[in-house]
């Protein structure tokens, strides 16, 4: 595919399209106010989105295209009018999402192929986020495989966008048995980096990520670092994890009490009653329970 060297405006005002300007019958306007003169017929032939849009806007010469960046729309119009487009790491995710939004299936396939063939530690996670938004399974699967294999390198990449991953995507990566890491410290680094990017909203999610740690592989020095870190030691939501039946609270609490007898049931009130020191003790007991063999005991009355 040839690469256009001109903007859409230059393309529209030159070559064969210059003589077709008299037939221009509409203009697209972005939220930023940028306007592009176009031919309805040309766009309608390439996209069901535009075909439907123009059908409901027959009497409107200027039509607003919301939620589309001006530079991205410029590139897409270049593609529609010339069949060529410039793809790189900077515009790939936006073009992927926008081509899906505008129902440009042929461009979407081009973006998908380019993404898979040119995946790096820099664009892997942004592509995973973008492809998950539009449910492009081929890219999603490739991104997951790449991230699992190159996770250590992604951690060392300053602009990998790990902190922008949705919780469910990060959890799926960290809990995978195929995650290629030197040690569990790498998993812990990812948890800390993601949580500290937005402490106010992510502290409640930290307990979920902590369960991704392979406790049998957590060495003593790492365990000490985990327990002393503020996202554990000062996190009231750690206690909330223990009260969630999905985490086998009854069994886990029995194990905790047997491992750390100072946590008497009478003292286990609301999470807010715990200061940083007490919370650290509770978190430590939780870690011990997760690392120790536990005899499963059914609790018919949900009391311990």
UniProtKB/TrEMBL annotation:
<dbReference type="InterPro" id="IPR011705">
    <property type="entry name" value="BACK"/>
</dbReference>
<dbReference type="Pfam" id="PF00651">
    <property type="entry name" value="BTB"/>
</dbReference>
<dbReference type="InterPro" id="IPR011333">
    <property type="entry name" value="SKP1/BTB/POZ_sf"/>
</dbReference>
<dbReference type="Pfam" id="PF07707">
    <property type="entry name" value="BACK"/>
</dbReference>
<keyword id="KW-0677">Repeat</keyword>
<dbReference type="InterPro" id="IPR000210">
    <property type="entry name" value="BTB/POZ_dom"/>
</dbReference>
<feature type="domain" description="BTB">
    <location>
        <begin position="24"/>
        <end position="89"/>
    </location>
</feature>
<keyword id="KW-0880">Kelch repeat</keyword>
<protein>
    <submittedName>
        <fullName>Kelch-like protein 17</fullName>
    </submittedName>
</protein>
């Amino acid at each position: 595919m040839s690469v256009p060297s001109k903007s859409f405006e230059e393309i529209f005002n030159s070559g064969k399209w210059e003589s077709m300007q008299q037939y221009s019958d509409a203009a697209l306007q972005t939220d930023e106010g940028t306007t592009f003169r176009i031919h309805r017929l040309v766009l309608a032939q390439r996209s069901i989105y535009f075909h439907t849009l123009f059908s409901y806007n027959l009497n409107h010469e200027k039509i607003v295209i919301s939620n589309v960046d001006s530079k991205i729309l410029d590139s897409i119009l270049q593609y529609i009018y010339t069949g060529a487009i410039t793809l790189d790491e900077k515009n790939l995710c936006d073009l992927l999402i926008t081509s899906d939004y505008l129902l440009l299936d042929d461009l979407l396939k081009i973006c998908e192929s380019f993404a898979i063939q040119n995946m790096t530690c820099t664009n892997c996670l942004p592509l995973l986020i973008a492809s998950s938004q539009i449910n492009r399974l081929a890219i999603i699967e490739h991104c997951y495989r790449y991230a699992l294999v190159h996770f250590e390198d992604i951690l060392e990449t300053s602009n990998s966008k790990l902190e922008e991953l949705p919780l469910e995507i990060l959890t799926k990566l960290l809990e995978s048995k195929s995650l290629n890491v030197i040690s569990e410290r790498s998993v812990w680094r990812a948890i800390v980096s993601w949580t500290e990017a937005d402490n106010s909203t992510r502290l409640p999610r930290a307990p979920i990520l902590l369960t991704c740690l392979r406790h049998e592989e957590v060495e003593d020095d790492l365990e000490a670092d985990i327990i002393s870190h503020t996202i554990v030691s000062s996190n009231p939501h750690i206690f909330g994890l223990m009260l969630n039946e999905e985490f086998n609270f009854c069994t886990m609490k029995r194990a905790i009490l047997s491992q750390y007898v100072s946590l008497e049931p009478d003292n286990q009130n609301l999470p807010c009653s715990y200061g940083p020191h007490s919370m650290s003790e509770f978190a430590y007991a939780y870690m011990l329970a997760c690392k120790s063999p536990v005899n499963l005991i059914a609790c018919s009355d949900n009391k311990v």
